[in-house]
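Let us work through a complete example step by step.
Step 1: write down the sequence.
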Amino acid sequence: MRIAELYAQNRPVFSFEFFPPRTPKGGESLLRTIKELARLQPGFVSVTCPLDKTRRPDTFALVVRTKRDLGIEAMAHVVTVDYSRSEMSTVLEQLRRDGIENILALRGDLPENADPDAPRDFQHGVDLVRFAREIGGLCIGAAAHPELHPNSSDWEGEIRHAAEKVAAGCEFLITQLFFDNEDYFGYVERARNAGIDVPIVPGIMPVGSVPGIKRMARMNRNRIPADFLAELEAAEDDALAVHRLGVRHATRQCEDLLARGVPGIHFYTLNRSPATREILTALRERPSPAG
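Step 2: predict the structure and record it as tokens.
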């Protein structure tokens, strides 16, 4: 099923994101995790695409197995880095033959020290959106950045790039993680004022590791609210306490987001099920149904 059709049903869509493990054993373990989370009836799951080109087939294989063997709608992340137009055509057409209808179109991170202006068949994510639309038969999503893309210098350019992707054929946007809902709603307001009318889905990551989330926040320019950061740092040596804080904060974020009418919530699972399972179970036990 096309993911855009899920969002058109006017009820919150819950989805989970995973990354492809490096070993066959890890792949089998992840499939078990996905099967566990399948009991929560997600609208779809997605699998990220590695920077290492040789590992990208692992993403596509995991997406296909998830849909074929587990019966869950699946979306493949597709990055352009190191792909020619001919190679990309082969990738997209194979996904279609394998029954995959949904992709998240991304440029992907450039290799370290790469010249961002060097000639490439796909210079930006929007180029992949246009190409996938020409190939046809795919529902195309793209990324959004509530706290600015790390390479963006201002909101005018950030929103212009998003609008270009939508004009090129992107049917929904999924945001990078954030910890303050006002950052998300500020982005949505800017996008709507610019005429972007596709669903903008918040991406939520429950904190599981204090060093890990600090490192990710530095990389992505995420702002961790001072009071939440202080709680995390005070509990840093207690893994269970950090888990509980992460679940509590993410649950509160989700409750507020749902109360304010978001089209769904995309959970960054880090290939683990407990936190996501706890949060979504809590949301569905609320007196007012969330989905």
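Step 3: interpret the result. Residues 51 and 109 are 7 Å apart (CA to CA).
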